[in-house]
Specification:
The longest helix has 22 residues. The chain has a 4-stranded parallel β-sheet, with helices on both faces. A two-stranded parallel ribbon has the order 3-4. The chain has a single domain, classed as 3-Layer(aba) Sandwich (Rossmann fold), CATH 3.40.50. The chain starts with 11 loop residues before the first helix and ends with a helix. With about 250 residues, it is α/β, with parallel strands linked by helices. Strand 1, helix 2 and strand 2 form a beta-alpha-beta unit. Helices cover about 35% and strands about 10% of the residues. It is globular.
């Protein structure tokens, strides 16, 4: 599935012929997502969105970056859980900047970064800024995630049984669980989904991290009422709005 959009499946000659198309770099993370979801959630979501978007715009999907910037305690659990493997901000910034430079060297002028990890944004924007100053107006670089383009009425459709806790706490909760049920149901352990009170949103940062600030499960808000049907609603709505963004950005 989606084999025709994957850069890694192309020969160098096939790849060279695609330089006028949009190249998409999915960027995820390797991070704990409670007892019911695997460490690869952000990576799976990033690449599955990227594949579907690429099919609609005749784009090319580069191999996914499966590590991201450090998750914070109240938007991912931070380094308190085994399996959360983080990059320093400068490392992520330089890694993405190197990849942008390589895409440009191969002739691509429309580069789309798709991130599915909450904390990545600032360092990706910094990489974009440096790359843009280097390559000038001829190279267009776009960054989106999947949650900001969602329509407000879609949020109402998703949060039917539990209130929307805000995107920082919506970690391993209804949206990510529903997306994984839609994309990779075999990786979701529904028996271990817990109904719980939401964590309290953070109003400050303190280091060393307070170990009792994050629920012991690693889940920040209830995943109760998650479903593949809700995952499909999120995907269809977000992609419809992202396609409008892409059309405007890459005219």
């Amino acid at each position: 599935m989606f084999e025709n959009v994957k850069m890694s499946n192309m020969t160098w000659q096939e790849f060279a012929k695609r330089k006028d198309d949009v190249i998409i770099l999915p960027i995820g993370a390797t991070e704990q997502h409670g007892p019911h979801l695997p460490l690869c959630v952000d990576t799976v979501i990033a690449e599955q969105f990227a594949y579907r978007i690429a099919e609609k715009i005749n784009g090319v999907v580069a191999p996914t970056l499966s590590y991201g910037y450090k998750s914070k305690p109240l938007s991912g659990g931070g380094p308190l859980f085994p399996g959360t493997i983080d990059l320093n901000g400068l490392t992520l910034q330089n890694l993405v900047l190197d990849l942008i430079d390589e895409f440009v060297k191969d002739g691509f002028k429309k580069i789309y970064l798709f991130s599915a990890h909450f904390e990545n944004e600032a360092f990706l924007v910094e990489a974009m800024d440096i790359a843009s100053n280097k390559h000038g107006d001829s190279v267009q670089i776009l960054l989106t995630n999947w949650w900001d383009p969602m329509s407000p009425d879609t949020i109402d459709k998703i949060f039917t049984e539990v209130p929307f806790p805000g995107w920082a706490l919506e970690h391993a909760a209804v949206t990510e669980t529903s997306l994984m049920m839609y994309f990779k149901p075999e990786l979701v352990n529904e028996k271990t989904i817990i109904d719980m009170e939401n964590a309290t949103p953070g109003t400050y940062y303190r280091y060393p991290i307070e170990k009792d600030i994050v629920p012991a499960s690693g889940v920040l808000a209830s995943a109760k009422s998650s479903s593949p049907e809700k995952g499909k609603i999120i995907v269809e709505d977000s992609i419809a709005n992202i396609l409008k963004i892409i059309d405007k950005a890459f005219k």
